[in-house]
Amino acid sequence: MDKSVNPDNQERTIGWRVRMALGILLLLAIAVVSVTNSLLTDRFTESTRNRAELRLALYSGNLLSELRQNAIVPQLLARDAELIGALNSADYTASTRRLISFVEEIGAASLMLLDIDGRTVAATDRNRLGSSHRAEPYFVDAIRSNATIFTVAERETGGYGFFYSRRVQSGSDVLGVIAVEVDLQKFGRAWAGISDAVIVTDSTGTIILTTEPRWRGRTEEEALVRHTPQNAIQRAIQATADWTALPPDAYLQGEAVMRLETRIPFRGWRMASFTTYASVRERVNGVLALEIMGFAILLALSFYALSRRTALRMALFQRESAELRALNVALQREIAERKRVQETLAVAEQTLEQSSKLAALGEMSAAVSHELNQPLAAMKTYLAGARLLLRRNRQEEALSSFGRIDDLIERMGGITRQLKSYARKGQEAFSPVDMGDALASALSMMEPQLRQRHVQITRLVPETPVRVMGDRLRIEQVMVNLLRNAIDATKSERLPKVDILLSAGETATLTVRDNGPGIEDLDQLFEPFYTTKQAGDGVGLGLAISSGIVNDLGGRLTARNGQAGGAVFEMQLPILGSEHGTQAAE
């Protein structure tokens, strides 16, 4: 009896194998799509976060640069002779024109000159002439203080105005107030075209600058009220849109967003940005679509092999395959276009970052050139001495001079390194500094001038080290500036003398006292470009730079006239460690 294969059994076997192959293909597709989704989501989310962090750093840097640029304006205008004369004579016919001539160069939103009663007597916005600002904080606080005042004023029409103000004096008489309005709203308008949402909050957490006008005056929690979709269909659509994103940092109007925050080193301000995951979802979904399409093509080919018996089904699958290929080309074209746009954006962001750094370097160039003059002068003196020693065949002493020149070159290198790190100001890593060693180094640098002038130096230093947390190079800069001022102050004395006292108590205190004529104007002593020296001897930046360095280190720099004559400068820095009690100098 012949055995034959049952066609039905054979067909069922083939069908079972086909179904198993299709099931395996489906499981493989699910596994590949899940793994790809997880990996690409992490990668693209990190890329989006890095770009958002870069934009946030640029935004905060530009905002801080604008504030610092306008901070010096009231101080300069308060000394303008024509404005002071107008307030004295009550003749303001030319004052408004003068303010208008300044505003374009300064870049401020507006300038106002207020008399002693708070009435606007001159303004770049002529609609403000005659208006009263007597109750405004920028007028009241400026009248009471002899410094420049910064004020955030809420407008009646909504939003906030940002003002720098300073009182105008003639001698000891207060004549009025000069107010400079800083245009920070332009940043909000510029950010709105690039970022999804940006806010700036003050020290109380109130939003004072934002790309969303309706958020002004609210806290971040009040602004970011989550609105849940109303029905099941909307919730399903929202869940589908968010499934490729990492756990969100916050929700903005019901949409998951990435939140980044940074501190602005100005009056406790903070900046936060909110970036949607839309770009991440688009890029991930594009890749997933390609994978799904690939598996779909495999699936279509499988069905095509099964249905080749009929021409109709064959034509149908061929048509579907052609459509999928067209979709593939369209998706690839779209992905290529998106990559090109992203590369263009990256180049633009790098260009903007470089421009911001160059602007910051320009602001610091005057200060750095001032600090390089002292080492250059010392190097010139040491070179002259070394040349004379070599002529006299005193090579050992000449080599010592060259060693000191090498130290000065290293110091100049440190000053230029400060210029490179200027964009990261406020984030330097401090280390313990021995004030005694720093003082010895500063005196070594000043040695050529001390020899030339025959200045008697009296130095009292504790036996135990006096340590502070800071940057030794910047501390030495302050010491050199104080010693140089003391030496210059004793030029007219027959027996010049400088006393240096270092003590340690609750603070580390360095006192420098000279027997010169003293200080005439203590109020303007630490202001930039104020100097009593002859032209060519100084530009008036030394004490201003020194005061800024000491403030950055958490200390203070003061000056007074001594009881027996001469000037007395004191630099106080927080002492390292928890010990208290004064160490007496031996």
TrEMBL record:
Organism lineage string: Bacteria, Pseudomonadati, Pseudomonadota, Alphaproteobacteria, Rhodobacterales
Catalytic activity: ATP + protein L-histidine = ADP + protein N-phospho-L-histidine
Pfam families given in the database record: HATPase_c, HisKA
Enzyme Commission designation: 2.7.13.3
Coiled coil: 314-358
Domain of life the protein comes from: Bacteria
One GO CC annotation: plasma membrane
Chain ranges passing through the membrane: 21-40, 286-306
EC top class named in words: transferase
Keyword annotations: ATP-binding, Cell inner membrane, Cell membrane, Coiled coil, Kinase, Membrane, Nucleotide-binding, Phosphoprotein, Transferase, Transmembrane, Transmembrane helix, Two-component regulatory system
Role this protein plays: Member of the two-component regulatory system DctB/DctD involved in the transport of C4-dicarboxylates. DctB functions as a membrane-associated protein kinase that phosphorylates DctD in response to environmental signals.
Membrane topology category: Multi-pass membrane protein
Species this protein is from: Roseobacter insulae
CDD domains: HisKA (cd00082)
A Gene Ontology molecular function term of the record: ATP binding
Protein known as: C4-dicarboxylate transport sensor protein DctB
Subcellular location field: Cell inner membrane
